[in-house]
Amino acid sequence: MTPTKPVRRRLPAESTMRHALARRDESFDGTFVYGVTTTGIYCRPSCPSRAALPRHVRFHASAAAAEAAGFRACKRCRPAEREALNTTRMRRIARHIEEHAAEPLPLARLARSAHLSPAHLQRRFKAVLGVSPKVYQDAARLGRLKGGLRAGQPVLEAMAAAGFESTSRIYGSAARNLGMTPSAYRAGGAGEAITYACRDTTLGPLLMAATDRGVCFAQFGASAAALVGQLGHEFPRATLAAAAASAEPLLDAWITALEAHLAEQAPRPDLPLDLRGTAFQIRVWRFLLGIPAGTVASYAELAAGIGAPRAVRAAASACAANRIAVLVPCHRVLRSDGGLGGYRWGLERKRALLDQERARRAG
């Protein structure tokens, strides 16, 4: 995230804005303005002026947008001036977050420094910066981590300097893209750059690949060459590039974390994922992400869990289509009679993963 970069504002739902107008809710000041067609004037939501008839009200994301539509600022509530002050105020908070990203920054503390309630700050900050203060801090921390890794810092040292308390906090804080449209999937990765790395693990060769959104491929195979061929088959129109640890330190850290998990030295890393499939497959994979380590579900329970109890075979097919081993834990789904069922990367690997997780849970 580019610090304090202007964003294109999105209006709240119309019902929300009309409710805010009816209450003259000051907490929405800075998130939108409204113009009145009969007067040609635009105001802040909290303006004490006489309420206009709903059919005469027009909503705009900013003072500039209202003026571009031909409205002039209210002299009573001075929306343009207040908006400029609010923008300056929120950007000052954003700079504070950047400077202190490695520290705990509870919303309540930030709100006190801005002399606002937490809800007011959350809403106004998001209107100006496009994200919440928490997401902004996560991005700032991740930026620090990447900078430290590029500078050659050891992973744990870079983590500490960026303010991350554990690997799961690192991987969980990155932005996620849990699902692509079927048309994007069918495009075969056209126009995308995918970086990959391969490692020998206790369960055999493993190749991990990622886009700028997260891990899109993590599979076991007979050899590195076979896995690269499989990656090319999955994304035939993408630009594929092998990653050197020095050039792609974050991907190297991700595959190292997964390798450590497979060697029973660390918990399963919670990495950002770039899942691609049909809407049904995405629902299945999201459900899989919620199955706790050391526990299992049946294919019937999986189907019922996504609200499609009759689609047991389709749910099983979605598991088989999963291209992100371990991170999307399809190995935790068994037959109703307790049998292993199938596994894309072999039943011995499935059994080993389940045994490892049960042992860790028991311990």
Pick out its properties:
363 residues, alpha/beta, DNA Methylphosphotriester Repair Domain, Double Stranded RNA Binding Domain, Arc Repressor Mutant, subunit A, four-stranded mixed β-sheet, elongated
**What's the CATH architecture name of the domain at 279-362?**
Orthogonal Bundle
Query: What name goes with the CATH superfamily of the domain at 279-362?
Result: Winged helix-like DNA-binding domain superfamily/Winged helix DNA-binding domain
The helix/strand class is: alpha/beta
Classify the oligomer: single chain
Summarize the helix and strand pattern as letters.
HEEEHEHHHHHHHEEEHEHHEHHEH
Q: Which CATH C-level class of the domain at 279-362 is it?
A: Mainly Alpha
Please work out how many helical segments DSSP would assign: 15
Uncertain runs are 1-8, 171-185
How much β-strand is present in the residues?
Answer: 5-15%
Please give the largest β-sheet. 4 strands, mixed
Q: State the helicity in percent bands.
A: 40-55%
Could you name the CATH topology of the domain at 279-362?
Arc Repressor Mutant, subunit A
Average pLDDT, all residues: 84
With strands numbered from the N-terminus, the spatial order across the biggest sheet is 3-1-2-4
Question: Topology of this structure?
Answer:
Layout: H1 14-23, E1 33-36, E2 41-43, E3 57-60, H2 63-68, E4 72-73, H3 79-99, H4 107-114, H5 118-129, H6 133-150, H7 155-162, H8 167-173, H9 182-186, E5 193-201, E6 204-211, E7 214-220, H10 224-234, E8 239-242, H11 249-262, H12 279-289, E9 297-298, H13 299-305, H14 312-321, E10 333-334, H15 347-362
Parallel strand pairs: 2-4, 5-8, 9-10
Antiparallel strand pairs: 1-2, 1-3, 5-6, 6-7
Helix pairs in contact: 3-5, 4-5, 6-7, 12-14, 13-14
